[in-house]
Amino acid sequence: MQTLTLIRPDDMHLHLRDGDALKAVLPYTARQMGRAVIMPNLKPPVAQVEDALAYKQRILDALPPGSRFQPLMTLYLTDNTTVETVRAAKAAGVVAFKLYPAGATTNSDSGVTDLFKLLPVLREIAAQDLRFLVHGEVTDADIDIFDREAVFIERILKPVLAEVPDLKVVFEHITTAEAARLVCEAGDNVAASVTPQHLLLNRNDLLVGGVRPHHYCLPVLKRETHRQALVAAATGDKAHKFFLGTDSAPHPQHAKENACGCAGMFSAMTAIELYAEVFEAAGALDKLQAFASQNGARFYGLPENSDTVTLVKQAQSVPASVPMGEAQLVPMRAGGEVAWTLQQD
Ligand code: NCD
Ligand code: ZN
Ligand code: ZN
């Protein structure tokens, strides 16, 4: 049987939430990944260094016994973030600040209303060699939801990079050919995370034959040409700038299957296997290790993980749902199969 051994991967964009949800989802990631960059969009947001340190401890406490998984903590950028907070974050081992434009996505009410008022903070993020993670969508009501990422590049990202040229930016969960091109053409201080859903699915998977609420995430799935551009970027000449970031985000089933279903897909159960499907279909399995285990670590200035994982080309069934506290959680590919299986230790 075909097998594939990789340096243990890292998930550079992960939502773990807190409490029962944290306890339910963390073991899935800890089984696969050496580390994960932990998103700070809790309610209230993780905006102060003390919040991040306390949250980190709750994550460590929720780990299965013996796990060597390491959470990499981030802080939520708000209109009130100060230069002093940036310095304290660096001293405390926080790895990045995360931009949520106000109103752009799940739990973004405390997000930034005018990024250009925060230029001194961004300059300090660069000076402290922290990473700046962006949810790259504008929120203006007159901009079509399918155009919000492309407009963000012109109105926000390019002008910010012109003001702070040495800022190390991760354009998170990119979904468009425009975003892939921006990253390819920018300096090596600009990189991107790419999710399994944006590499595997297009907007037909959201809307054809009925609305599929479990395929609703933000930025919303785009047309097939954009999906192809993301696969080309992750396997092409500039592939060193693209890395694994699942954006796995647990929402209870009742909140997804709702008249106003919320945004986010839960992919952590079979994350590395889903990416293996993408790279296999592109004839680029030899590039999966760089994407999953090397490019992200290098961009964050971290060593690669010292152990390996092995994938077997054997289909696994994905359950229709799994428990999350009192609720149920519907994973990506629920009720279906994934073509690869991670070998148990
Ligand atoms: C994420 C979540 O649920 O926290 N949802 C999503 O659709 N991607 C937030 C985010 O990453 O934008
Ligand atoms: Zn986001
Ligand atoms: Zn996210």
Q: How would you describe the overall organization of this protein?
A:
It contains 12 helices and 15 strands. The protein is 35% helix and 17% strand. The model has no long low-confidence stretch (mean pLDDT 98). Helix 6 runs parallel beside helix 9. The radius of gyration is 19 Å and the shape is globular. It has 345 residues and is of the alpha/beta class. Bound molecules: N-carbamoyl-L-aspartate and zinc ion (2 copies). One zinc ion (ZN) binds next to loops.
Would you summarize the structure shown here?
The protein is of the alpha/beta class and 345 residues long. The protein is 35% helix and 17% strand. The chain is built from 12 helices and 15 strands.
How large is the count of helical segments? Answer: 12
Bound molecules: N-carbamoyl-L-aspartate, zinc ion
Stretches where pLDDT is under 50 for at least 5 consecutive residues are none
Largest beta-sheet characterization: 8 strands, parallel
Helix and strand content put the structural class at alpha/beta
| Overall pLDDT level | 98
Give the overall silhouette: globular
Name the descriptors.
345 residues, alpha/beta, 8-stranded parallel sheet, 3-stranded antiparallel sheet, 12 helices, binds N-carbamoyl-L-aspartate, binds zinc ion
